[in-house]
Amino acid sequence: MFKKILIANRGEIAMRVIRTAKEMGIKTVAVYSTADRDSLHVRFADEAVCIGPPASSESYLKIANIIAAAEITDADAIHPGYGFLSENAKFSKTCKDNGIKFIGASPEHIDKMGDKATAKATMIQAGVPVVPGSEGILKDYAEAKKIAKKIGYPVMIKATAGGGGKGMRAVWTEKDLEKHWESAVQEATAAFGNGGMYMEKLIEEPRHIEIQIAGDSAGKACHLSERDCSVQRRHQKLVEETPSPFMTKELREKMGNAAVKAAEFIGYEGVGTVEFLVDKNGDFYFMEMNTRIQVEHPITEQVIDYDLIKEQILLAAGQPISGKNYFPKLHSIECRINAEDPYNGFRPSPGMITNINIPGGHGVRVDTHVYAGYQIPPYYDSMIAKLIVTSQTREESLAKMKRALDEFYIEGIKTTVPFHRQLMDDSEFVKGNYTTKFMETFELDPSYADSFS
Amino acid sequence: MDIKEIQNLIKFVSKSEVAEVNLKLKDFEIKIKNIGGQSVTYTPQPMPAVQMPVAPQPSAAAPAAPTAEKPAAEEDNSKYITVKSPMIGTFYRSSGPGKDPFVSVGDNVNVGSVLCIVEAMKLFNEIESEVSGKIVKILVDDASPIEYDQPLFLIDPS
User: I need a surface site. Which of A6, A7, B37, B59 has the fewest CB within 10 A?
Assistant: First the structure.
């Protein structure tokens, strides 16, 4: 087992890893930028090393600095958390080259699953359903028409050089294809200098449902059921829950098996997540694979009663998995609390937290790195806490989340607590009727902020 | 005084009824204050009843070194320039074992003069001075680990 783990991250996930390492009797090293000197993870690690100025590129993303910190503290393993270098193949390789165990995926797996086209091709080989689409760039309109017929409408034509929604068109019937094709190509050429287009099936009423997996060094993998992460704003997850209100026993078995098949096909080691898009008919399609621990891992932990960080460390140390799959015994919801003002376009609100009351009680868990008197630095992402509730049923979890949010006073900055409180009252969310389009039509009600001032 | 001795000294003072200890040796100075003279009853260890000017935990690595030196530096800082480390690694005063140190106290340096080497990942990086002046104090022991922004030298630019 490792003697000392260096956590190459900050904030709540650094605290998360430190906590489990401590319980396992493993020493911890925190690294921090000069802006994070007063951060909680620095206080609670056994050792701490300053690795650079505030900018992430000069500190948390600076591979040389992190490896140097591991060297001078004699750390034998590095946990990269999520974000930052957690899916950086070069970092994974550099750790290996320096005799430090990277508690994450191998450089090969990171590369394979990191590139969308390669990942998709690999999944096709593995026999995992993927979003049907063209094989690369469409030659011309005639080919577009042929492929669309093959895939079946509705389809999405997308600019290969695209971004920000430009050069993208949803086409619902064949008679609309020609005019959408011409306008998309024109837009893409004007915006990116490249009119190349590819095509994918348009997933109707898409739900983002992901499957947690774990694989060991013997090539065995298992799944730990799903998380529904459909409530997103600009592709950033806001709320996650398990089990998914859309899930059935049969669908879970099919998706779970597909995820295990994917993991075993590439010989994946460690914990990871296979993300799927699920349409209104219950057909699911591979979207991408995350070769790291995820932000929302606590809800899975709560319903299956396992410490996923501990499992991750054990797997990295070579321990085999049981081979069983794990199913939710309870219901859990997580709200990501960000230092953002929901009533001003969710703009970031860094500053000093003058007072904070962290909710507690039965079935309430808060993973956070903030405290009263903490100055939120403006250099990093805005998530300041994760509020996780767990109960026997979804109804009880919703009631518990409302109660817990009502206790969650954070003074000195603006947070998304009132937004989450409104969400818990939303009739469609309460019914479990939500897709990735949910936030597009969600109307913010500023009166919710009043009960928190 | 090495890091272990400093840690022991801090532990000793924090357990005692003494309010403040000022210790001055030939090339080392430390000031330790006991807040309220009470020892802290909670764990983890990072916050004993000892006031440290910076980095609250007595860890084996770098933070112990700058904390001890800070009080001395603070008194003189107005006149002198503190050279801080731009890197993390191991600090070496010379280019190799048995070789002469790059600089000693009293030496004059110019912009670009090599002051020391910081070694990390088997690479040796020469740290050059950004000012000219006289070396007043060397704040880190040879072959000790240092972190980013750690004070290394005091230079008198006058």
Answer: B37
Give the pLDDT band (50/70/90) at residue B41: very low
ipTM: 0.74
Inspect the interface and report whether the beta carbons of B44 and A50 lie closer than 8 Å.
no
A76 and A178 co-located in one domain: no
CA distance A2 to A319: 12
A275 backbone φψ class: left, alpha, beta (φ>0; ψ -120 to 50):
beta
Triad A50, A51, A56: Cα angle to 5°:
125
Q: Which residue type occupies A354? A: T
- Same domain for A297 and A378, yes or no, is yes
> CB-based contact (8 Å) between A54 and chain B?
no
Contact with chain B for residue A433, Cβ under 8 A: no
Q: Please check whether residue A338 lies inside any domain of the structure.
A: yes
Mean pLDDT of chain A: 95
Question: How much is the pTM?
Answer: 0.81
Cβ <8 Å between A68 and B59: no
- The CATH code of the domain that includes A369 is 3.30.470.20
Contact predicate B144/B118, CB 8 Å: no
CA nearest to A400, candidates A356, A358, A448, A364: A364
Residue A289 phi, psi (nearest 5) = -120, 130
Quick: pLDDT tens for A70-125.
999 999 999 999 999 999 999 999 999 999 999 999 999 999 998 777 888 899 99
From residue B97, how far is each of A90, B34, B58, B138 by CA, in Å? 33, 40, 29, 18
